[in-house]
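Give me structure tokens for this 135-residue protein.
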Amino acid sequence: MTGFWKRLWRRTSTESSDENATTCFGPGVEIEGKINVSAGTIRVNTRVKGEISSNGSIEVGPRGELEATVRAKAVIVAGKVNGDIQVSDCLEIKQHGIVLGDVDARVLIVEPGGYFDGQCKMPVAEVESQPRMEL
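Here you go.
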């Protein structure tokens, strides 16, 4: 292999295994059990029953139906999730998205037409100790 091809192969092989990787589950597939992806995005547009987690993000498509506990850095719901969701960053419920369960998220966004039924815990950012200004 010449130097050019070696560099191209090295670049594409590392890019495919990094945080930009996407795992897709489309219509016609039914999953029951645990799904754990260490990095990247999980796109679900089918039925999942059990647990699903990622150090990256999870996107539930319009045809996605999860009866599952969900843990990720960020979650976007355009379909339906029946179960608890825990995100370290942001949960976004799209226009026709449905979430039935408790949520633990720093940021919760519900678009008009989106539906959320459950309790939400949002951690409070710790206040940095700063000296008080005296007047």
